[in-house]
Amino acid sequence: MAHSRIVYLVDDNADYRFLVQQVFTLFLPEHQVHFFADGSQLVERMDALPKVSRPDLIVLDMDMPQLNGLQTLFLLKQNPDWKAIPVVMMTNRDQMEIRRKSHQLGANAFLLKPLNLLEMRNVMTQLCAY
């Protein structure tokens, strides 16, 4: 059995969060996934967590209200308690400048959002094995 992971997914699209939830329920039940609608919710949660309860992986959408993906990534990587947590940026737009900025700020990977259940299963399975 694979090592159980705690994954935080930050995305303002409720339909996309539902798709991810279905993937974890059906194909990756050994892992825990927690959802946040924007970066400010994630930062608030991270501030409240003891170090031992930190996630194993954070998946950030790029386009969100309040704190977007790049702003959230910046905050995560500036905090000494959070900067070692792997962060994967996901977006519908494959723009080289956004990709470059994500890596510059410390993202571990930059992926285009999978658009169907099968693609999502494959991506999330690979991410949880990371």
From TrEMBL:
<dbReference type="InterPro" id="IPR011006">
    <property type="entry name" value="CheY-like_superfamily"/>
</dbReference>
<dbReference type="InterPro" id="IPR001789">
    <property type="entry name" value="Sig_transdc_resp-reg_receiver"/>
</dbReference>
<keyword id="KW-0597">Phosphoprotein</keyword>
<dbReference type="GO" id="GO:0000160">
    <property type="term" value="P:phosphorelay signal transduction system"/>
</dbReference>
<feature type="modified residue" description="4-aspartylphosphate">
    <location>
        <position position="61"/>
    </location>
</feature>
<feature type="domain" description="Response regulatory">
    <location>
        <begin position="6"/>
        <end position="128"/>
    </location>
</feature>
<dbReference type="Pfam" id="PF00072">
    <property type="entry name" value="Response_reg"/>
</dbReference>
<dbReference type="InterPro" id="IPR050595">
    <property type="entry name" value="Bact_response_regulator"/>
</dbReference>
<protein>
    <submittedName>
        <fullName>Response regulator rcp1</fullName>
    </submittedName>
</protein>
